[in-house]
Amino acid sequence: MSEINTPEGISSQLGQCLKAARQARGLTLKQVAERTGMALSTLSKVENGLMSLTYDKLLQLTSGLQMEIAELFNPLVGRLDQDRPVTARRSISRAGQGQVIATRFYTYTYQCTDLIGKRMVPIVAEVRARSLEEFGPLLRHAGEEYFLVTSGRVAVHTEFYAPEILDAGDGIYLDSTMGHAYLNAGDEPARGVCLCTSEAPDLYDQLRRIASRDSPAGD
């Protein structure tokens, strides 16, 4: 049995927390149903305190919404970031500074490498590969990213969309778990700034390992 009836207080709390979590993500009940594969009527009953869920359904719900299960029993859990103490961390990247990984087809210069545990990894990139054959396998890693072209033209290839051409000043935001590649689509050098973000604590190491696979020294 997927759903269970529980004491009114527990059902009411779960419903309130589900509603708070849904609204915090700007989702409708229909969108929650689509993301989780759960019936819209079931979700409506839960939000209204008329029904609770078994553990497997709670996991299905939280997995679909990419949230911690604790948030369904304490709405403050989803807002912990707002209450985090100010760390006052900062790092300045001067022109020409950064950790460089260079190959025949691209050069990545990682910025602000003195900070550890960053949620965002900023990279200055020069793209030289002009074909997928040169570039190699599409890149995939945790999180999401934004790539802003600063000079030249860049062709963005992804596994689910037709290629797009970006000129200087154009940018693209994409799901980094989707296969993707940036290629030089012009006659001049193509450069850009890429911002990668993820909840994974080892994102920086993941990105360096991926970039290093084609470096001459296999760094």
TrEMBL record:
<feature type="domain" description="HTH cro/C1-type">
    <location>
        <begin position="18"/>
        <end position="72"/>
    </location>
</feature>
<dbReference type="InterPro" id="IPR011051">
    <property type="entry name" value="RmlC_Cupin_sf"/>
</dbReference>
<dbReference type="InterPro" id="IPR014710">
    <property type="entry name" value="RmlC-like_jellyroll"/>
</dbReference>
<keyword id="KW-0238">DNA-binding</keyword>
<dbReference type="InterPro" id="IPR010982">
    <property type="entry name" value="Lambda_DNA-bd_dom_sf"/>
</dbReference>
<dbReference type="Pfam" id="PF07883">
    <property type="entry name" value="Cupin_2"/>
</dbReference>
<dbReference type="Pfam" id="PF01381">
    <property type="entry name" value="HTH_3"/>
</dbReference>
<dbReference type="InterPro" id="IPR001387">
    <property type="entry name" value="Cro/C1-type_HTH"/>
</dbReference>
<dbReference type="InterPro" id="IPR013096">
    <property type="entry name" value="Cupin_2"/>
</dbReference>
<protein>
    <submittedName>
        <fullName>Helix-turn-helix transcriptional regulator</fullName>
    </submittedName>
</protein>
<dbReference type="InterPro" id="IPR050807">
    <property type="entry name" value="TransReg_Diox_bact_type"/>
</dbReference>
